[in-house]
Amino acid sequence: MVREDHARLTALYDAHAAPVWRYVVSLTGDHAGADDVVQETLLRAWRSPRIMNDDPGSLRSWMFTVARNLVIDEARSARRRHELAVDEVPDAGRDDDTDAMFDALLVEEALSTLTPDHRAVIVSAYYGGRSVAQTAEELGIPAGTVKSRLHYAVRALRLALQERGVTR
């Protein structure tokens, strides 16, 4: 039985694969896709004993109809609509920076509510990455004053952010 099935499938392929493939390529212009459609068409014909027993002309006509329907189904499929062929593989995706941008705007707005002295120590120490001694030297004030201003500036900044909906 297996040899008989193999012989039938081989005969079916030899008689009809090339014309069906050319037909599918003329419909789609896709050589690789045509191979898949021909394979599915031959498989459907082989699985349908009634079709296999028809005369060769009606069998080929049936196969062209099946192939055309497979091409139409593929064109209508969701997979086809969402896939785009590209010449080059795109670069790896990167994270969206929108949240970081909004956070930065929010902090900038909150910083603008601080007094100039408090804002200066925050910017120098936290954003400038300077130590208390370096901040004191840069601003020309004692280190103790820098510590005090940082303490009150952070409290004021926290309050300003809470007023804008930022919660801890």
Give structural notes:
By secondary structure, this protein is mostly helical. Helices cover 77% and strands 0% of the residues. It is built from nine helices and no strands. The protein folds into two domains: 2-82, Rna Polymerase Sigma Factor, Chain: A (Orthogonal Bundle), CATH 1.10.1740; 98-163, Arc Repressor Mutant, subunit A. The N and C termini lie far apart (75 Å). It is rod-shaped and about 100 Å long.
In short:
77% of the residues lie in helices and 0% in strands. The protein has 168 residues and is an all-alpha fold.
Task: Indicate the topology.
Elements: H1 2-28, H2 31-47, H3 49-52, H4 56-76, H5 78-82, H6 98-111, H7 116-127, H8 132-139, H9 143-163
Helix pairs in contact: 1-2, 1-4, 2-4, 7-8, 7-9, 8-9
Fill in the keyword field for this structure:
Rna Polymerase Sigma Factor, Chain: A; mainly alpha; single chain; 168 residues; Arc Repressor Mutant, subunit A
Query: Can you identify the CATH superfamily of the largest domain?
Result: RNA polymerase sigma factor, region 2, helix turn helix motif
Query: Which second-level CATH architecture of the largest domain applies?
Result: Orthogonal Bundle
Shape field: rod-shaped
Question: What's the level 1 CATH class of the largest domain?
Answer: Mainly Alpha
Q: What would the average pLDDT be, to the nearest integer?
A: 85
Strand percent estimate: under 5%
Low-confidence stretches: none
What's the CATH topology name of the largest domain?
Rna Polymerase Sigma Factor, Chain: A
Q: Count of DSSP E strands?
A: 0
The total domain count is 2
